[in-house]
Design brief:
It is a single chain. The chain is α/β, with parallel strands linked by helices. The protein has two domains: about 260 residues, Acetylglutamate kinase-like (Carbamate kinase, 3-Layer(aba) Sandwich), CATH 3.40.1160.10; about 90 residues, Archaeosine Trna-guanine Transglycosylase, Chain: A, domain 4 (Roll), CATH 2.30.130.10. It has an eight-stranded mixed β-sheet with strand order 5-6-4-1-7-9-10-8, with helices on both faces. It has a five-stranded mixed β-sheet with strand order 12-11-13-14-15, with helices on both faces. The two termini are about 30 Å apart. About 40% of the residues are buried. The structure holds glutamic acid (GLU). The site of glutamic acid (GLU) has 14 residues, from α3 and β6.
């Protein structure tokens, strides 16, 4: 039996598929989900919502009947649709005397420590005030193609859950959960109720790209699950259209798939892991084995440097780990292959003798 009696903070993600019906915005769904969230808050649970649907609403306002593909148009639609989306949530939550707040974020906001801390302060204040913060990507300013700046709102919701130290992430979608096969093709395929850890086998259940089975974006959902898991946060993937799903889930009912999480990384390690690296340091096998073994990165094992970065910035190590560099890219170029004791002679006295400390190196796999 799932036990959520101690649940304190939950992030709920609602996908576009649930918010649209017959190409129209599904107002009844927003009303119903607001009612359910009001119920969760009565249990003393803090709720943060991640809602898609801005682009769809903007397209509706412009009477566009087909899916908007052009990036500039999608950005325009997001700008048009976001206030309409918020208006709908405001009306629906208003029925329960709950105030809402709009929080629009981009990847850069979370990657940058200063803006992230500002965001954290404002979100904590909103929660303290009893308000439901509603997150979406700031699509109209995202420099990346929309949908790829965060990847998608699955990833965004997991990042939010990770950053606000939520206990649980609920991803509501239009599929029942994770199956161990394609239920549409394999009559033996069954829903997995509980996943202790994301393994290669579990990733395999997400189906190959382009198959009917993966149209729900199961791979991105499993990636989101592992982001949340690294923050010690459980995830439930469930069908958001089922009656009273949120309350039933929190009553411990065996709905959807629960991912139990795993080893929690520190907030700093998570920041390092999920930052976009500014540059890259390529290192040899010996140095790689050493840092895998929780040793610091030394200049002697470096083969080359790519990009221009400052000290204190996050860089990639061989594309498989991220690290905070103690030196600028130019400085590293001057000490490549040298012994640490030569650093003062090459760069001047008082410099660190390691490129990155063991605790500042985090492997993505
Ligand atoms: N941010 C987009 C929107 O509000 C949706 C992105 C997604 O569904 O993953 O329309």
């Amino acid at each position: 039996m799932r036990d959520f009696s101690k649940l304190r903070r939950v992030v709920i993600k609602i996908g576009t598929n649930l918010l649209t019906k017959d190409h129209e915005f599904n107002v009844e769904y927003v009303q119903d989900i607001s009612r359910q969230i009001a119920g969760l808050r009565e249990r003393g649970i803090q709720v943060l919502l991640v809602s898609s649907g801005a682009i769809g609403m903007g397209a509706g306002e412009l009477n566009l009947k087909v899916r908007v593909k052009d990036i500039k148009m999608r950005q325009a639609c997001a700008a048009i649709g976001q206030p309409l989306l918020m208006h709908q949530y405001r009306e629906s939550f208003g029925e329960y005397d709950i105030s809402i707040a709009q929080v629009l974020i981009t990847r850069e906001v979370l990657n940058n420590r200063t803006t992230f801390l500002n965001l954290k302060n404002s979100v904590e204040t909103l929660l303290f005030l009893g308000i439901v913060p509603i997150f979406n990507e700031n699509d109209s300013v995202s420099t990346d193609e929309i949908g790829s700046a965060f990847g998608d709102n699955d990833r965004l919701s997991a990042m939010v859950a990770s950053k606000v130290e939520a206990d649980l992430l609920i991803i509501l979608t239009d599929i029942d959960g994770l199956y161990n096969g394609d239920p549409r093709k394999d009559s033996n395929a069954s829903l997995i109720s509980s996943v202790p850890e994301i393994t290669e086998e579990i990733m395999g259940f997400a189906g190959s790209k382009g198959s009917e089975f993966s149209t729900g974006g199961m791979k991105t959902k499993l990636q989101a699950v592992s982001i949340a898991a690294n923050a010690g946060c459980k995830t439930i993937l469930a069908h958001g259209g089922k009656t009273d799903i949120l309350n039933r889930l929190l009553n411990g009912e065996d709905e959807g798939t629960i991912f139990l999480g795993g080893k929690k990384l520190s907030a700093r390690s998570r920041w390092i892991l999920y930052s976009d690296p500014i540059g890259k340091i390529n290192i040899d096998k010996g140095a790689l084995a050493a840092i895998r073994n929780h040793k610091s990165l030394l200049p002697s094992g470096i083969i080359s440097v790519e990009g221009v970065f400052n000290k204190g910035e996050v860089v990639s190590i061989n594309g498989i780990a991220n690290a905070v560099s103690k030196f600028t890219s130019t400085e590293i170029e001057n000490i490549i292959g040298h012994h640490s004791r030569e650093i003062p002679a090459l760069l001047g006295k008082g410099r660190k003798d390691v490129i990155a400390r063991a605790e500042d190196i985090v492997f993505s796999f």
